[in-house]
């Protein structure tokens, strides 16, 4: 098969979970099935930044299919006119896979699209305006263009059916994996110390790692941490690590209004090479999100042997199973009790660490890529 992977999520300045999902699946699929001809397609900028970025993923198994046409101009034109994708990236692929919800018009061959969640329908107030507009305008058309729609979890499958019941027969679930070369128990105490120092962290800490935005439920987490810290006195810090999303002012304001500026640490965007040490240095990983299509960060923390707290919402219990402390994301007291349990119960932390490592082993990119390849074979 000749397989084209749309590489837009991989050439972003700051790669998010969608990009890491595409990287894990495409790199492993190309490695496991070298008989296929795989390529990344993308609009290359004049300075070559996009090409340099993509080469860290392409290796020897994935070719590059680039167009020098201005990306922003293409986006503008495609909103106004049905500009065919094949005019820029050819007509010879058996399958073209788009990993970020939208299939443009005019794609030759079979098409696959990954729809990660329905948050723009379930919690529209937590989604950036232009993203909501794009999905409102384009997702239904995209689902109709797709031969197969891939999603990350059974939860997300049921959510897509709730809003687009007519495409149920097209849906396939392909869980994400975890890269155990990047995320694993870390015995390098110096590396952990260096990463902590670079981010201004001292002593023990609870860690949240992800985008700073409303959907992640960080205002309630901060309020719960405030109640917890009052109860235990000299409490661990709360580290909120990651890039700013949108509507984040309320999150920073909550810290200030509660007088927690010395206890809650906001870091800069954390480079990929520092994430493992940052996770392994934490007392526990906390992720009380309101809505996730899969939830890769808790799984990555489990692979590191770090005890995890997650909300009992959306896909998170599906991913973590019984290997995490589950809390009610809408109940500040429930989140505070979860923090207290993790802080005071060392035996619980050891048990969650052990069982989390084992559960994470079931979510591999090998398995994910094999399931995706079976879908491609089904199509051709």
Could you characterize what this model shows?
The protein folds into two domains: 2-177 and 364-379, Glycogen Phosphorylase B (Rossmann fold); 189-360, Glycogen Phosphorylase B (Rossmann fold, 3-Layer(aba) Sandwich), CATH 3.40.50.2000. The chain is built from 16 helices and 13 strands. β9 (237-241), α10 and β10 form a beta-alpha-beta unit. Strands 3-2-1-4-5-6-7 form a seven-stranded parallel beta sheet, with helices on both faces. It has a six-stranded parallel beta sheet with strand order 10-9-8-11-12-13, with helices on both faces. α1 crosses α16. 45% of the residues lie in helices and 15% in strands. The protein is an alpha/beta fold.
Summarize the structure.
With 380 residues, the protein is of the alpha/beta class. The protein contains 16 helices and 13 strands.
């Amino acid at each position: 098969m000749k397989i084209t992977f749309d590489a837009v999520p991989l050439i972003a300045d700051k790669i998010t979970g969608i990009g890491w999902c595409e990287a894990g699946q495409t790199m492993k699929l190309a490695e496991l099935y070298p008989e296929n001809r795989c390529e990344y397609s993308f609009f290359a900028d004049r300075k070559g930044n996009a090409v340099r970025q993509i080469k860290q993923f392409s290796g020897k198994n994935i070719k590059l299919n680039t167009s020098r046409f201005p990306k922003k101009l293409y986006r503008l034109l495609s909103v106004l006119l049905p500009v065919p994708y094949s005019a820029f990236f050819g007509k010879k692929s058996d399958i073209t896979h788009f990993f970020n919800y939208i299939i443009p018009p005019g794609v030759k061959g079979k098409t696959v699209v990954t729809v990660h969640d329905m948050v723009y329908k379930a919690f529209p107030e937590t989604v950036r305006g232009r993203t909501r507009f794009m999905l409102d305008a384009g997702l239904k058309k995209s689902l109709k263009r797709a031969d197969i729609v891939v999603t990350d979890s059974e939860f997300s499958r049921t959510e897509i059916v709730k809003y687009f019941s007519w495409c149920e027969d097209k849906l396939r679930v392909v869980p994400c994996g975890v890269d155990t070369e990047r995320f694993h128990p870390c015995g390098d105490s110096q590396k952990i110390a260096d990463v902590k120092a670079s981010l201004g962290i001292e002593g023990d800490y609870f860690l949240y790692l992800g985008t700073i935005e409303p959907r992640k439920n960080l205002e309630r987490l901060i309020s719960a941490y405030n109640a917890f810290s009052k109860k235990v006195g000299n409490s661990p810090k709360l580290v909120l690590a990651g890039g700013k999303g949108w509507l984040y002012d309320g999150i920073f304001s909550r810290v200030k209004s509660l007088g927690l500026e010395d206890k809650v640490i906001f870091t800069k965007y954390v480079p990929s090479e520092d994430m493992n040490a940052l996770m392994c240095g934490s007392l526990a990983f906390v992720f009380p999100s309101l809505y996730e299509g899969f939830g890769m960060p808790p799984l990555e923390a489990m692979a590191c042997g770090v005890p995890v707290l997650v909300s009992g919402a959306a896909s998170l219990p599906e991913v973590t199973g019984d290997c995490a402390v589950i809390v009610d994301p809408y109940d500040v007291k429930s989140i505070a009790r979860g923090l207290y349990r993790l802080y005071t119960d060392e035996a619980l932390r050891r048990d969650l660490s052990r069982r989390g490592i084992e559960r994470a082993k079931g979510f591999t990119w090998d398995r994910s890529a094999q399931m995706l390849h079976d879908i491609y074979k089904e199509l051709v």
